[in-house]
Amino acid sequence: MEIVANVLVGLVAVLHLYILVLEMFLWQRKPGRGLHGFAPETARATAPLAANQGLYNGFLAAGLVWGLLAADPTGFRVQVFFLSCVVVAGVFGATTANRRILFAQALPGALALAAVLAAR
Questions:
Q1: Quick one: how far is CA 34 from the chain centroid?
Q2: Which residue of 1, 39, 55, 82 is 20 to 30 Å from 75, comparing CA positions?
Q3: For residue 97, how many other CB atoms are within 10 A of its CB?
Q4: Are the C-beta atoms of 85 and 63 separated by less than 8 Å?
Q5: What is the pTM of this model?
Q6: Checking phi first, is residue 37 left (phi over 0); if not, alpha (psi -120 to 50) or beta?
Q7: Tally of helices (H runs) and strands (E runs) in the chain
Q8: Quick one: three-class SS letters along 72-108?
Q9: Nearest in space to 26 (alpha carbons), one of 51, 4, 8
Q10: CB atoms < 10 A from the CB of 106, how many?
């Protein structure tokens, strides 16, 4: 079960690195605009906000990688903390921005968190 948990945590970290790239560097290009259906003017106006969100997603990814690399009990605790942050951010994003965030962010985080707790 520990291998499954580690793989899921790694996948959530990769997902958040992808979100970082999308929000910080591709927001005004086709991949970023296509995600939300923004016109170029809207993407340009919201780019600083998206970059800020992207940076926070990078922090989540960094924390998850730290949790994978750190020895227990620190690694376990760090994984639980950052996966909990992912779930909370996903639920908040789903209620305030777009319901799809629940499935794209909160659900993978919750599955990884459940696996980490089950592997303990």
A1: 19
A2: 55
A3: 11
A4: yes
A5: 0.94
A6: left
A7: 6, 0
A8: CCHHHHHHHHHHHHHHHHHHHHHHHCCCHHHHHHHHH
A9: 51
A10: 19
Helix, strand, coil shares of the chain as percentages rounded to 5?
A: 85, 0, 15
Asked if 80 and 113 touch (Cβ cutoff 8 Å), the reply is yes
Residue with tokens 């909160």: 106
Q: pLDDT tens, position by position, for the chain (120 residues)?
A: 999 999 999 999 999 999 999 999 999 998 888 887 889 999 999 999 999 999 999 999 999 999 999 999 999 999 999 999 999 999 999 999 899 999 999 999 999 999 999 998
Residue 9 burial class via C-beta count within 10 angstroms: exposed 0-12, middle 13-18, buried 19 and up: buried
